[in-house]
UniProtKB/TrEMBL annotation:
One of its GO terms (molecular function) is prephenate dehydrogenase (NAD+) activity. Pathway: Amino-acid biosynthesis; L-tyrosine biosynthesis; (4-hydroxyphenyl)pyruvate from prephenate (NAD(+) route): step 1/1. Residues 2-282 form the Prephenate/arogenate dehydrogenase domain. It comes from Streptantibioticus parmotrematis. It holds the Pfam family PDH_N. SUPFAM superfamilies: 6-phosphogluconate dehydrogenase C-terminal domain-like, ACT-like, NAD(P)-binding Rossmann-fold domains. Residues 294-361 form the ACT domain. The lineage of its organism: Bacteria, Bacillati, Actinomycetota, Actinomycetes, Kitasatosporales. This is Prephenate dehydrogenase.
Amino acid sequence: MRTAAVIGTGLIGTSAALALTGRGVTVHLQDHDPDAARTASALGAGTTQPPAGPVDLAIVAVPPAHVARTLAEAQRAGLARGYLDVASVKGGPHRELEALGVDLTRCIGTHPMAGRERSGPLAATAELFEGRPWVLTPTAATDTEVLNLALELVALCHAVPVVMDADAHDRAVALVSHTPQLVSSLVAARLEHAEETAVRLCGQGIRDVTRIAASEPGMWIDILSANPGPVADVLARVAADLGETVEALRALQSRDEDERREGTAGIEDVLRRGNAGRVRVPGKHGAAPASYETVAVLIGDQPGELARVFADAGAVGVNIEDVRIEHSTGQQAGLVQLMVDPAAVPGLTAALRERGWSIRQ
């Protein structure tokens, strides 16, 4: 791949363009908002000048509802040898392309499983896709050359290709992406009119659950409008679990011992099922999160503190697999949670204490 066109210079489109230009590909940028394209170009994502002839690959990075029309227009204009989209929903756009009579041999649906709470070209980064799954949904009609171009794009972005059926993809993202967004927003919505004294008690748990609630509503309306059925199916099952959990909690208020036992059993069931599901979430190198243990270190809110604790861990040969920071409300301190191999915990704890760090159990 020597040339590419990116249509839509938001977070995903600009990030892909940055990755490609960084690896020597000439990228031509288009957007319905000329300012967005100029901003992406100023960031080094490519040029806003139209290509002199067909490019190798056109990347359509627009909301799901606009994918089919945008791709069809680009194909009619002879923009590229191959076309792909990066929308987060695959089944609907593909059926729309069929209805529009698009040459399906020259296009393929894809979805990079990467994103941020922020949107727009200024949120883009060339490293956005590194190590992340990038779903490809080829069909029997997809030309081998187009599939190879898509695989080359994934490789240039340092992502991991995953081949799926389009409708299976939509059911999967309803579970692992779209429903979590709504659940996060529902929990965060409880905070809108909460008393200030309650909000000041927010700890890492509520921060974790509501992090993605900061996402742009307009973007998510586009996504959810393109995948409403599968998301509604998952939420219906969540709602059933919530109903049973509410009943179990009410039972815990009962004076009847048998009802309280049933309530306890119901709460324990949902917590244990949650444990079982959480263990299945892949961590670093595909390992389950439970395979690591945490060493919590108290640090001050000063420049260089994080670098110093990482350097001290490295000095004793301990690899930090993951890290989280838990901030103390109103305090100039926080806890850095270092996730490490269980066998490394005793040595790391002792070494950090020797170097003056305060370890919290």
